[in-house]
Amino acid sequence: MSTFAKRERLLLADLLETAGPEAPTLCEGWQTRDLAAHVVVRERRPDAAGGILIKQLASRLDKVMEEFAAKPYEELLQLIRTGPPRFSPFQLKQLDEASNTIEFYVHTEDVRRARPDWTPRALDPVFQDALWSRLERTARLMGRGTPTGLVLRRPDGRTVVANRGTPVVTATGEPSELLLFLYGRQSAAEVELEGEKEAITRLHGGKQLGI
Known about the structure:
The mean pLDDT is 89. The chain is globular. It has helices at residues 3-19, 32-44, 46-49, 58-69, 73-82, 93-112, 125-142, 175-182, 197-204, and strands at residues 149-153, 159-163, 168-172, 192-194. It folds into two domains: 3-112, no CATH class; 131-204, Nonspecific Lipid-transfer Protein, Chain A (2-Layer Sandwich), CATH 3.30.1050. The longest helix is centred in the middle third of the chain and has 20 residues, at 93-112. It has a four-stranded mixed β-sheet with strand order 2-1-3-4. The chain is 52% helix and 9% strand. The protein starts with a helix and ends in a 7-residue tail after the last helix. By secondary structure, it is α+β, with helices and mostly antiparallel strands.
């Protein structure tokens, strides 16, 4: 597994262990047990994980999620730490880096920022640049459902367009915060928004994306 993906995986597992199975998360309707089950199903049950994005498979995903959520919590945490099974495509380092760095970073913050006393993590510049690189590649795909135009801007002025619609809202922040904002964690992401007041209100009302 790649450096960033592995680090975030282990950090997520540790946070889930410390929080216990019934702690809140930023994922609507999910406690930590549900989040742990989601991570395991995504990696170990590709026959069901497609329901994350494909509505026709959602009922199967729900059933498999229930089965895994019923497992002992400690078993779920061990499966997260162990990583994907031997023949999983996630064993490929490039795919692990591309898919799991964001997955585990966002879900780590889902656990951290659901606590009332959370504080931002101090992330090193190399990791911030890695997250920005992923934002540049995925922003248009992930931002296509936003109700307004959306531009993501780093403090140094670099930008990426997530949605070319109008009116336009510009979100400024570190790549880690912009990533959380784009993935629907608007209430917890530390970004500054510029644009028409009505457009900003509409943007905040957007649905959380599936991850």
